[in-house]
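Q: What residues go here?
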């Protein structure tokens, strides 16, 4: 079929409102602006609406919805022509497969009730005799969606090459973090990677093709490569020396998954779920999809180059958008995903009182808990030529974006909600310290302090793990002290008044 014939196969109603369900995820966060740029009306849905709002998409309706909570789906699907199902539960841990099936059943039922014309589901390539829970879950989820009455178009893809893709980021971290790589034999297994932009074009066009209703398609790039080959190409594009890769027979995918948290910043549960399927050779029959949606397919090298270019062009400033390029100091060689450590406490106080204490941090007020450790870190930074001993702030209470707080910089603020400080000391990587304030009840507020660290290579990982014992103590104590000081600014739960002096 020619390109003109494919266009004639499009239905007018395929240009109606499209719901991107899972818009905060990797594919969804790229698909929304891709559709908008082509004049498609979009509604973006995620469990956390604030994450979508942080993206600052113009002309996009956002809503909060969770497929595990059926009551939340009706509003998200109301008036929708096509719904993209892009959610999965790998981050949920061991039972993610059951969560995926429940979510699919709920979504299919809600789509039927809402009269949705088409569901487009992004699944994964399925090799023969697949025994990986991740692979089976992606396959079974598609089958569960098809049990509903709404026609489903399923696109099965392997490794997707683009910033934030879990499989791609695992490979990038391995290349950047390990000069020598002792790997299982799966490093020689093969897969046909797909460029992100090629996949987005398929997702754009398929909903409007009547022929695609109820069909499963394989999506892949023009070449099939081993993971070793992909990592060598990735290293070359990044201008780095390729690691010495030594495959050994004793490391199974399961065993190798246990050390992933030490060599990659990709969330461990997600990385482990992916690793389980790497022992298979993946193949794809893309003839039908290429006939319906003809386009120039990028090879792996061009896909990596496009991924790096996309990162440079992305200027999302909000820290709670994972992988924000500005938070990585505009360095694509810093890990996309962040290592993190956090502590939380509940204050018998209002968000306003907690906010007052949080925004007074640093300067003469110092850091409320174990100041000796903070001072030691500042001294160590000064000894290596950093600005760790440059203490002070513009105002003892007031903060603005761009202010210096000792060696930190204020890069994000939402009054009584969130404060984000950029790490300014010398270290191999980039990081932020973020305070989140959340009302729990009328007189109770949760405050959470989280350190995010994007390591630069092996030294960046070593630095993080050397600080981990301190993190386990500091952030719990810090949030407890913030809570105590906030309570001192207000009345106790019994109604007696405490002092109201500054923190």
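A:
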């Amino acid at each position: 079929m020619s390109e003109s014939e494919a266009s004639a196969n499009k239905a007018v109603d395929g240009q109606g409102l499209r719901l991107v369900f899972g818009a905060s995820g990797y594919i969804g966060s790229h698909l929304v602006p891709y559709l908008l740029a082509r004049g498609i009306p979009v509604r973006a849905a995620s469990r956390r609406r604030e994450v979508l709002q942080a993206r600052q998409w113009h002309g996009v309706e956002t809503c909060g919805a969770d497929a595990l909570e059926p009551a939340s789906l009706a509003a998200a699907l109301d008036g929708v022509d096509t719904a993209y199902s892009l959610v999965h539960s790998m981050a949920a841990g061991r039972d993610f497969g059951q969560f995926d099936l429940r979510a699919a059943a709920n979504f299919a039922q809600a789509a039927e009730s809402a009269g949705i014309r088409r569901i487009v589901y992004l699944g994964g390539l399925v090799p023969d005799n697949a025994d990986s829970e991740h692979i089976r879950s992606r396959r079974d989820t598609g089958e569960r969606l098809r049990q509903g009455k709404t026609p489903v178009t399923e696109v099965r893809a392997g490794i997707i090459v683009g910033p934030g893709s879990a499989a791609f980021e695992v490979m990038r971290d391995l290349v950047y973090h390990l000069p020598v790589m002792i790997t299982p034999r799966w490093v020689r297994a093969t897969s046909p990677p797909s460029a992100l932009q090629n996949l987005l074009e398929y997702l754009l066009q398929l909903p409007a093709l009547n022929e695609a209703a109820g069909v499963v398609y394989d999506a892949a790039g023009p070449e099939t490569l081993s993971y070793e080959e992909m990592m060598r190409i990735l290293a070359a594009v990044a201008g780095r020396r390729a690691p010495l890769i030594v495959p050994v027979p004793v490391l199974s995918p399961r065993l190798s998954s246990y050390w992933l948290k030490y060599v990659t910043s990709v969330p461990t549960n997600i990385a482990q779920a992916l690793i389980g399927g790497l022992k298979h050779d993946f193949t794809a029959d893309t003839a039908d999809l290429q006939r319906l949606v003809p386009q120039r397919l990028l090879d792996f090298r061009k896909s990596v180059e496009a991924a790096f270019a996309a990162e440079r062009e992305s200027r999302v400033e909000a820290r709670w958008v994972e992988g924000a390029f500005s938070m990585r100091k505009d360095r694509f060689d810093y890990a996309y995903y962040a290592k993190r450590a956090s502590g939380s406490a509940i204050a018998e106080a209002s968000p306003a009182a907690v906010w007052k204490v949080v925004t007074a941090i640093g300067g003469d007020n110092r850091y409320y808990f174990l100041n000796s450790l903070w001072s030691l870190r500042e001294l160590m930074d000064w000894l290596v030529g950093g600005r760790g001993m440059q203490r002070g702030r513009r105002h003892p209470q007031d903060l603005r974006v761009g202010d210096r707080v000792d060696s930190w910089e204020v890069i994000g603020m939402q009054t009584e909600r969130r404060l984000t400080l950029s790490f300014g000391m010398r270290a191999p990587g980039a990081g932020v310290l973020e305070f989140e304030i959340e009302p729990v009840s009328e007189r109770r507020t949760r405050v959470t302090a989280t350190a995010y660290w994007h390591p630069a290579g092996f030294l960046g990982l070593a630095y993080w793990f050397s600080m981990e014992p301190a993190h386990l103590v500091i952030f719990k104590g810090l949030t407890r002290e913030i809570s105590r000081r906030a309570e001192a600014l207000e009345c106790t739960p019994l109604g007696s008044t405490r002092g109201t002096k500054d923190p």
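A: Context that may help when evaluating the design: Confidence is low (pLDDT under 50) at residues 1-13, 492-502. The domain at 3-310 is CATH 3.40.50.720 (Rossmann fold).
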